[in-house]
Amino acid sequence: MNDTLLIYYSFEGNTEFVAKTLTEKLKVDVERLQVTNEPPRSGLGKFLRGGKSALFQEDPGLKPITANVKDYYDIIIAFPVWAGSYPPAIGAFLEANPFTGRNVYLIGCSASGNASGAFDKLTRKLQGNTILGTLSLKNPLKNQDETRERIREFAARRN
Ligand SMILES: Cc1cc2nc3c(=O)[nH]c(=O)nc-3n(C[C@H](O)[C@H](O)[C@H](O)COP(=O)(O)O)c2cc1C
Description:
Layout: E1 4-8, H1 14-25, E2 29-32, H2 44-55, E3 74-80, H3 88-96, E4 103-110, H4 116-125, E5 130-138, H5 144-158
Helix pairs in contact: 1-5
The structure holds flavin mononucleotide.
Protein backbone atom coordinates (compact mmCIF):
# COMPACT_ATOMS: atom_id res chain seq x y z
CA MET A 1 0.00 0.00 0.00
CA ASN A 2 1.18 3.54 -0.77
CA ASP A 3 0.83 6.67 1.42
CA THR A 4 -1.11 8.50 -1.27
CA LEU A 5 -4.52 7.77 -2.69
CA LEU A 6 -5.57 9.17 -6.05
CA ILE A 7 -9.34 9.38 -6.32
CA TYR A 8 -10.76 10.42 -9.65
CA TYR A 9 -13.88 10.61 -11.74
CA SER A 10 -13.84 10.88 -15.52
CA PHE A 11 -16.83 11.11 -17.85
CA GLU A 12 -15.09 11.59 -21.19
CA GLY A 13 -11.56 10.29 -20.66
CA ASN A 14 -9.59 13.47 -19.95
CA THR A 15 -9.25 12.97 -16.21
CA GLU A 16 -8.57 9.30 -16.87
CA PHE A 17 -5.62 10.31 -19.06
CA VAL A 18 -4.41 12.63 -16.28
CA ALA A 19 -4.73 9.86 -13.70
CA LYS A 20 -2.79 7.41 -15.87
CA THR A 21 -0.05 9.96 -16.52
CA LEU A 22 0.19 10.74 -12.82
CA THR A 23 0.54 7.09 -11.85
CA GLU A 24 3.58 6.86 -14.14
CA LYS A 25 5.23 9.62 -12.09
CA LEU A 26 4.06 9.03 -8.50
CA LYS A 27 3.60 6.01 -6.30
CA VAL A 28 -0.10 6.15 -5.55
CA ASP A 29 -3.00 3.81 -5.01
CA VAL A 30 -5.79 4.61 -7.44
CA GLU A 31 -9.56 4.55 -7.15
CA ARG A 32 -11.75 5.48 -10.09
CA LEU A 33 -15.22 6.56 -9.00
CA GLN A 34 -18.07 4.89 -10.84
CA VAL A 35 -21.69 6.02 -10.78
CA THR A 36 -24.99 4.66 -12.06
CA ASN A 37 -26.57 8.02 -13.04
CA GLU A 38 -24.70 10.01 -15.68
CA PRO A 39 -25.88 12.62 -18.19
CA PRO A 40 -26.46 11.65 -21.84
CA ARG A 41 -23.19 11.13 -23.72
CA SER A 42 -24.03 13.71 -26.42
CA GLY A 43 -26.31 16.55 -27.39
CA LEU A 44 -27.49 19.50 -25.37
CA GLY A 45 -28.72 17.17 -22.62
CA LYS A 46 -25.12 16.33 -21.78
CA PHE A 47 -24.41 19.88 -20.61
CA LEU A 48 -27.91 20.73 -19.35
CA ARG A 49 -28.47 17.59 -17.31
CA GLY A 50 -24.82 17.25 -16.30
CA GLY A 51 -24.54 20.93 -15.35
CA LYS A 52 -27.73 20.79 -13.31
CA SER A 53 -26.59 17.61 -11.58
CA ALA A 54 -23.40 19.39 -10.52
CA LEU A 55 -25.07 22.63 -9.41
CA PHE A 56 -27.59 20.74 -7.28
CA GLN A 57 -25.19 17.91 -6.44
CA GLU A 58 -27.82 15.37 -7.42
CA ASP A 59 -27.29 11.82 -6.18
CA PRO A 60 -25.19 10.08 -8.87
CA GLY A 61 -25.58 6.59 -7.43
CA LEU A 62 -21.94 6.20 -6.41
CA LYS A 63 -20.77 2.58 -6.53
CA PRO A 64 -18.87 1.31 -3.48
CA ILE A 65 -15.14 2.01 -3.46
CA THR A 66 -12.50 -0.45 -2.30
CA ALA A 67 -9.97 1.91 -0.67
CA ASN A 68 -10.30 3.05 2.93
CA VAL A 69 -9.54 6.75 2.70
CA LYS A 70 -8.44 6.91 6.34
CA ASP A 71 -5.47 4.64 5.49
CA TYR A 72 -3.83 7.50 3.56
CA TYR A 73 -2.00 10.69 4.61
CA ASP A 74 -2.18 12.33 1.22
CA ILE A 75 -5.20 12.35 -1.05
CA ILE A 76 -5.25 13.56 -4.64
CA ILE A 77 -8.72 14.29 -6.03
CA ALA A 78 -9.00 14.66 -9.82
CA PHE A 79 -12.18 15.52 -11.71
CA PRO A 80 -13.71 17.30 -14.71
CA VAL A 81 -15.17 20.77 -14.10
CA TRP A 82 -18.94 20.69 -14.52
CA ALA A 83 -20.80 23.99 -14.62
CA GLY A 84 -17.91 25.70 -12.85
CA SER A 85 -18.07 23.16 -10.06
CA TYR A 86 -17.11 19.56 -9.28
CA PRO A 87 -19.22 16.65 -10.55
CA PRO A 88 -21.68 14.84 -8.26
CA ALA A 89 -19.43 11.76 -8.15
CA ILE A 90 -16.85 13.77 -6.19
CA GLY A 91 -19.46 15.31 -3.86
CA ALA A 92 -21.01 11.89 -3.20
CA PHE A 93 -17.58 10.41 -2.51
CA LEU A 94 -16.80 13.12 0.06
CA GLU A 95 -20.19 12.65 1.73
CA ALA A 96 -19.75 8.87 1.93
CA ASN A 97 -16.09 9.01 3.02
CA PRO A 98 -15.62 12.03 5.29
CA PHE A 99 -12.06 12.70 6.42
CA THR A 100 -10.01 15.43 8.13
CA GLY A 101 -6.35 16.06 8.92
CA ARG A 102 -5.18 14.96 5.49
CA ASN A 103 -3.02 16.68 2.90
CA VAL A 104 -5.13 17.15 -0.18
CA TYR A 105 -4.20 17.96 -3.77
CA LEU A 106 -6.86 18.96 -6.29
CA ILE A 107 -6.64 18.45 -10.05
CA GLY A 108 -9.40 19.88 -12.23
CA CYS A 109 -9.83 19.35 -15.98
CA SER A 110 -11.80 21.93 -17.94
CA ALA A 111 -12.57 22.85 -21.55
CA SER A 112 -13.07 26.61 -21.82
CA GLY A 113 -12.61 28.01 -18.34
CA ASN A 114 -10.33 26.91 -15.54
CA ALA A 115 -10.91 24.93 -12.36
CA SER A 116 -10.46 27.73 -9.81
CA GLY A 117 -14.19 28.00 -8.94
CA ALA A 118 -14.39 24.26 -8.39
CA PHE A 119 -11.23 24.39 -6.27
CA ASP A 120 -12.80 27.12 -4.07
CA LYS A 121 -15.96 25.06 -3.56
CA LEU A 122 -14.04 21.91 -2.78
CA THR A 123 -11.70 23.72 -0.41
CA ARG A 124 -14.75 24.82 1.62
CA LYS A 125 -16.10 21.27 1.59
CA LEU A 126 -12.73 19.91 2.69
CA GLN A 127 -12.46 22.07 5.79
CA GLY A 128 -10.25 20.41 8.40
CA ASN A 129 -7.78 19.27 5.75
CA THR A 130 -4.79 21.09 4.26
CA ILE A 131 -4.96 21.84 0.55
CA LEU A 132 -1.30 21.56 -0.44
CA GLY A 133 -1.63 22.04 -4.16
CA THR A 134 -3.95 22.53 -7.09
CA LEU A 135 -3.51 21.88 -10.79
CA SER A 136 -5.89 23.18 -13.45
CA LEU A 137 -5.59 21.48 -16.84
CA LYS A 138 -7.34 22.51 -20.03
CA ASN A 139 -8.44 19.80 -22.52
CA PRO A 140 -5.82 17.23 -21.44
CA LEU A 141 -6.56 14.79 -24.27
CA LYS A 142 -6.15 17.52 -26.90
CA ASN A 143 -2.99 18.86 -25.24
CA GLN A 144 -1.24 15.69 -24.21
CA ASP A 145 2.36 16.90 -24.37
CA GLU A 146 1.62 20.04 -22.34
CA THR A 147 -0.43 18.01 -19.88
CA ARG A 148 2.39 15.50 -19.38
CA GLU A 149 4.79 18.37 -18.71
CA ARG A 150 2.46 20.07 -16.20
CA ILE A 151 1.93 16.76 -14.41
CA ARG A 152 5.69 16.15 -14.36
CA GLU A 153 6.16 19.56 -12.64
CA PHE A 154 3.30 18.84 -10.23
CA ALA A 155 4.80 15.46 -9.30
CA ALA A 156 8.29 16.96 -8.90
CA ARG A 157 6.96 19.61 -6.50
CA ARG A 158 5.32 16.90 -4.45
CA ASN A 159 8.35 14.60 -4.13
C1 LIG B 1 -21.86 18.34 -17.88
C2 LIG B 1 -20.60 19.06 -18.26
C3 LIG B 1 -20.38 20.36 -17.81
C4 LIG B 1 -19.19 21.02 -18.13
N1 LIG B 1 -18.97 22.29 -17.63
C5 LIG B 1 -17.80 22.91 -17.91
C6 LIG B 1 -17.53 24.22 -17.37
O1 LIG B 1 -18.31 24.81 -16.64
N2 LIG B 1 -16.35 24.82 -17.69
C7 LIG B 1 -15.41 24.20 -18.51
O2 LIG B 1 -14.36 24.79 -18.77
N3 LIG B 1 -15.63 22.95 -19.00
C8 LIG B 1 -16.79 22.29 -18.72
N4 LIG B 1 -17.02 21.03 -19.22
C9 LIG B 1 -15.95 20.37 -20.00
C10 LIG B 1 -15.13 19.38 -19.14
O3 LIG B 1 -14.78 19.94 -17.88
C11 LIG B 1 -13.81 19.02 -19.85
O4 LIG B 1 -14.07 18.57 -21.15
C12 LIG B 1 -13.02 17.97 -19.08
O5 LIG B 1 -11.72 17.88 -19.61
C13 LIG B 1 -13.70 16.62 -19.17
O6 LIG B 1 -13.06 15.67 -18.35
P1 LIG B 1 -13.41 14.11 -18.50
O7 LIG B 1 -13.09 13.76 -19.93
O8 LIG B 1 -12.51 13.42 -17.53
O9 LIG B 1 -14.85 13.91 -18.20
C14 LIG B 1 -18.20 20.36 -18.92
C15 LIG B 1 -18.45 19.05 -19.39
C16 LIG B 1 -19.63 18.40 -19.07
C17 LIG B 1 -19.87 17.00 -19.56
